[in-house]
Amino acid sequence: MTAQIHETLGFRHALAPGVDPSRAPILLLHGTGGDETDLLPLGAQVAPGTTLIAPRGAVSENGMPRFFRRLAEGVFDEEDVSRRAADLARFVAEAREAYGLAAPIALGFSNGANIAAALLWEHPDVLAGAVLLRAMRPLAREPVGGLDGKRVLIANGAVDPLIPADRSAAFAATLEKAGASVTLEILPAGHGLTQADLALASRHLADG
């Protein structure tokens, strides 16, 4: 799958057109220090034939791209989270119009998973669903709701030093209260991704 790099719509982004128009496109959202090409191989592996679109986070932390600012490890600048989520929601809307795409399923890792969660929190109409790998609650306030029937997979690590294990169930429960159909998987892993993550993501997307 060949990706084209674009400098339009407010984000530098990669677009890899798929061959299966029946499948929702995948919005790939990288972790801290990644870029628009970072998750393309993963996306092609877990969702073969599907259109992939991958923006680069517009925030720089010591030269590393991110999707929003943080005040410390695990402490988010919530005002910035909301602002950047709105920017990303606008990007998705413009990309759908420009490229003729259906509502995408987000596949995010770490910081990318957290901005995807912020979209679910505050812009429930933007995504068709989400695969959140190593994610945590993005905002202290409650989600706006309106996620009825949207499928969300959360895959976190049991020994992840960045995400306390006891927070994952509460995070999943909050999304369920907002209407999402949530599958929570706690893997015997740390913050890095494993083959089990890829298998879970592939199965979740195939079932969708």
Name its key features.
208 residues, Rossmann fold
Structural overview:
It is a single chain. It is built from five helices and twelve strands. With 208 residues, the protein is α/β, with parallel strands linked by helices. The chain has one domain: Alpha/Beta hydrolase fold, catalytic domain (Rossmann fold), CATH 3.40.50. Helix 2 packs across helix 3. The mean pLDDT is 96.
CATH structural fold name: Rossmann fold
CATH superfamily: Alpha/Beta hydrolase fold, catalytic domain
Q: Which structural class fits the helix and strand makeup?
A: alpha/beta
Along the chain, the helix and strand elements come as EEEHEEEEEHEHEEHEH
Gyration radius, rounded: 15 Å
Q: Which stretches are low in confidence, meaning pLDDT under 50 for 5 or more residues running?
A: none
Number of strands: 12
Instruction: Report how far the terminal alpha carbons are from each other.
Output: 22 Å
How large a portion of the residues is in β-strands, by DSSP E?
Answer: 15-25%
**Overall structural domain count:** 1
Spatial strand order of the main sheet: 1-2-4-3-9-10-11-12
* 3D shape: globular
Please give the largest β-sheet. Answer: 8 strands, mixed
How would you summarize this macromolecular structure in one to three sentences?
With 208 residues, this protein is an alpha/beta fold. It is built from 5 helices and 12 strands.
Topology:
Elements: E1 4-6, E2 13-16, E3 26-29, H1 40-46, E4 52-55, E5 59-61, E6 64-66, E7 70-72, E8 75-76, H2 78-99, E9 105-109, H3 111-122, E10 129-133, E11 151-157, H4 165-177, E12 181-187, H5 195-207
Parallel strand pairs: 3-4, 3-9, 9-10, 10-11, 11-12
Antiparallel strand pairs: 1-2, 2-4, 5-6, 7-8
Helix pairs in contact: 2-3
